[in-house]
């Protein structure tokens, strides 16, 4: 162990020696800043929460609001003369996407649970009405009616393979008669929903989301169908009936930058469309092993979607590159029996992407014999084993449109009590305080903010936006829910989904995870920030469009166990003028499951055990170290 050891990652020791006095001064200043910025793990005691003192002054679809008078800012002598300023009014706003539903007379807490009707499962106590037929092999098997009166009727009709090089396609599974069974109050399972492939369909409702998951249960290899693995895409096809024209935001998941490859492919790029059907928005989906917590930081494959017209039919096409799922799909059990190919493969000319005849639903609503209104299994939750599979999901989010802006204003304390999913642009103002409720496990529900659109930071160095614990009484209005929890709160506080955001002048405290960047590309910057008493600081994950340069500048990581975690390839992380003060000798500065390099320049690293773990490589120049135990 070497105390106050300053040096470089590079071998240029002589040139680096001249910078030791500068680094010493920088280290002292940074240490003092860290002490000032990092209070003890136990936050200051909080006053009685206004949210517990009295009912809210306003209730809306996604919030409950209390108005709080702030003390007068006029001088004492002016107050004595009766000339005091009128007390300012601030707000405490408790928010979660889909928090309440309209009963016809008032807003009431949403209840994400299905009931049993004559021939379908229905959910009526959410911001949307959901109806799912007992048998999916029917026209309009799934019907959604949004709060703003938009109706979306659909049926999942097929699973296909598509070769992005040749444009060839083949249907490998078609919807068949299947019986829905409640496996929990908010989840319906349709086992063996397809003919030709072993796959289930699962529907899950929540206050904030509606999900349709296709789960592949048996080994799948495009080579068995004469398709190349490296350029094949697995697709889920869902037919839409009389659907309104949605708002669309097109964004690349992957762009092929090699000109010779682009010229050789019919479809070189993977483009996702965010589809807004009023206040019901289909955002980018993900594909992952069914044994994986879908909320975890583990790398997942992006699922792109777009609406296509085939033979006067409107089809929602969800696509995922096979290579991103190859390992998981090859590890599944062998199919019970070899299914014959259902349709002849079509090899269209370049630029004319075509599919074999997409099947049409052929069953009746009441054709599923296992599930009837008299069946006791409808009211008792079915007990099913945790089976291996690979999930391809689409996620729809109610509550806002793709063009409605979410403002986190500087005069407000926001109590984040669940998932806050922002379909439209987001603006963070300086002085806004966001406090997150504590949850310990998934799927009880983590408190987090997920951004599916653009983010603008209007905070400043002297007026940052603050993300902290509900039980932190040191800032903002009190929204304490009880005893301070040492295992962290927000998870993550900010979740940025596909884009190249620039974040600045933010402070994160007591987070399980501060910031997650999923699928970002290009250059993403994170500047003038403080992360204090967090478990995970920055997490970079997902598959991006090309390479990612992640730049962290002039930021403090004080008592952060894992400052940077990388779970994606083709990314480079660069830290400039940063101070990283780990909380214990068991901490690791950089952790990665993919081969990546983290560069540090002119930075201070204190009290960690290792610099890099897993597949992370650490490099850089002109840095200072203290109490690193495993160099």
Relative strand content: 35-45%
Proportion of helical residues: under 10%
- Determine the mean pLDDT: 82
Tally of DSSP β-strands = 49
Which secondary-structure class do the elements indicate? mainly beta
Multimeric state: single chain
Give the domain tally. Answer: 2
> Span between N and C termini?
9 Å
Task: Provide the low-confidence segments as ranges.
Answer: 1-41, 72-76, 367-385
The global form is: globular
Please give the largest β-sheet.
Answer: 19 strands, antiparallel
Instruction: Give the count of helical stretches.
Output: 6
Radius of gyration: 27 Å
Structure report:
This protein is mostly beta strands. It folds into two domains: 111-397, no CATH class; 401-596, Pectate Lyase C-like. Helix content is 7%, strand content 42%. It has a 19-stranded antiparallel sheet that branches. Strands 1-49-47-45-42-39-36-33-30-27-4-3-2 form a 13-stranded mixed sheet.
Helix and strand arrangement:
Elements: E1 6-7, H1 13-17, H2 20-37, H3 50-53, E2 58-59, E3 63-69, H4 76-80, E4 89-95, E5 100-102, E6 107-109, E7 115-116, E8 120-123, E9 129-133, E10 142-145, E11 151-163, E12 169-175, E13 180-184, E14 187-190, E15 194-195, E16 199-205, E17 210-216, E18 232-241, E19 247-254, H5 259-264, E20 270-276, E21 280-283, E22 285-289, E23 301-310, E24 313-321, H6 326-330, E25 390-398, E26 406-408, E27 412-416, E28 419-422, E29 426-429, E30 433-436, E31 448-451, E32 455-458, E33 465-469, E34 494-497, E35 502-504, E36 506-509, E37 513-518, E38 522-527, E39 530-532, E40 536-541, E41 548-553, E42 556-558, E43 562-567, E44 571-576, E45 579-581, E46 588-601, E47 604-606, E48 610-621, E49 623-626
Parallel strand pairs: 4-27, 26-29, 27-30, 28-31, 29-32, 30-33, 31-34, 33-36, 34-37, 35-38, 36-39, 37-40, 38-41, 39-42, 40-43, 41-44, 42-45, 43-46, 44-46, 45-47, 46-48, 47-49
Antiparallel strand pairs: 1-49, 2-3, 3-4, 5-6, 7-8, 8-9, 9-10, 10-11, 11-12, 11-18, 12-15, 13-14, 14-16, 16-17, 17-25, 18-24, 19-20, 20-21, 21-25, 22-23, 22-25, 23-24
């Amino acid at each position: 162990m070497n105390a106050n050891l300053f040096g470089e990652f590079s071998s240029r020791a002589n040139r680096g020696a001249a910078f030791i006095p500068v680094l010493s001064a920088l280290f002292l200043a940074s240490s003092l800043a860290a002490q000032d910025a990092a209070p003890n793990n136990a936050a200051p005691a909080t006053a009685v929460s206004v949210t517990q003192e009295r009912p809210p002054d306003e209730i809306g679809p996604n919030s409950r609001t209390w108005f709080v008078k702030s003390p007068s800012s006029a001088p004492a002598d002016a107050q004595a003369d009766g000339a005091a300023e009128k007390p300012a009014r601030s707000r405490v706003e408790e928010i979660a996407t889909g928090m309440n539903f309209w009963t016809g007379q008032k807003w009431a807490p949403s209840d994400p649970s299905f009931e049993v009707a004559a021939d379908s499962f229905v959910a009526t106590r959410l911001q949307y009405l959901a109806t799912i037929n007992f048998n999916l092999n029917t026209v309009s098997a799934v019907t959604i009616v949004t709060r703003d009166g938009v109706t979306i009727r659909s049926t999942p009709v097929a699973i296909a393979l598509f070769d992005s090089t040749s444009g060839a396609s083949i249907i490998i599974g078609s919807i068949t008669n299947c019986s829905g069974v409640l496996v929990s109050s908010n989840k319906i399972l349709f086992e063996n929903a397809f003919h030709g492939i072993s796959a289930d369909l699962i529907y899950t409702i929540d206050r904030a989301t509606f999900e349709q998951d296709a789960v592949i249960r048996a080994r799948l290899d495009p080579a068995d169908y004469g398709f190349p693995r490296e350029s094949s895409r697995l697709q889920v096809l869902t037919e839409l009936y009389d659907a309104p024209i949605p708002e669309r935001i097109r964004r690349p998941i992957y762009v092929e930058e090699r000109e010779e490859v682009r010229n050789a492919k019919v479809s070189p790029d993977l483009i996702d469309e965010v589809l807004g059907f009023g206040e019901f928005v289909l955002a980018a989906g993900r594909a992952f092993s069914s044994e994986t917590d879908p909320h975890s930081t583990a790398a997942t494959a992006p699922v792109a979607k777009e609406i296509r017209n085939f033979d006067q039919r409107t089809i929602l096409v969800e696509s995922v590159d096979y290579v991103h799922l190859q390992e998981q799909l090859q590890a599944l059990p062998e199919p019970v029996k070899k299914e014959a190919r259902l349709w002849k493969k079509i090899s269209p000319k370049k630029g004319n992407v075509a599919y074999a005849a997409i099947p049409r639903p052929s069953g009746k609503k009441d054709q599923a014999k296992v599930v009837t209104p008299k069946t006791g299994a409808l009211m008792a939750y079915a007990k099913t084993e945790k089976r291996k599979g690979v999930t391809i999901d689409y996620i729809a989010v109610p509550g806002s449109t793709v063009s409605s802006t979410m403002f986190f204003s500087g005069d407000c304390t926001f109590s984040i009590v669940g998932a806050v999913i922002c379909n439209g642009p987001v603006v963070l103002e300086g002085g806004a305080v966001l406090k997150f409720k504590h949850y310990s496990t998934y799927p009880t529900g983590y408190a987090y903010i997920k951004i599916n659109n653009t983010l603008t930071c209007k905070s400043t160095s002297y007026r940052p936006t603050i993300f902290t614990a509900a039980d932190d009484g040191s800032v903002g209005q009190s929204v304490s829910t009880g005893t301070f929890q040492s295992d962290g709160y927000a998870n993550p506080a900010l979740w940025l989904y596909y884009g190249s955001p620039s974040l600045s002048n933010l402070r994160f405290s007591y987070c399980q995870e501060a910031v997650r960047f999923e699928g970002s590309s290009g250059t993403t910057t994170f500047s003038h920030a403080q992360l204090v008493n967090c478990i995970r600081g920055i997490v970079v994950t997902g598959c991006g469009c090309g390479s990612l340069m992640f730049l962290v500048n002039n930021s403090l990581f004080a008592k952060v166990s894992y400052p940077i975690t990388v779970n994606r390839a083709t990314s480079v992380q660069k830290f400039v003028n940063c101070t990283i003060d780990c909380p214990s000798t068991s901490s690791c500065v950089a952790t990665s499951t993919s081969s990546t390099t983290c560069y540090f320049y002119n930075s201070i690293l204190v009290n960690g055990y290792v610099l890099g773990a897993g597949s992370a490589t650490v490099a850089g120049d002109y840095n200072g170290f203290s109490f690193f135990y495993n160099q």
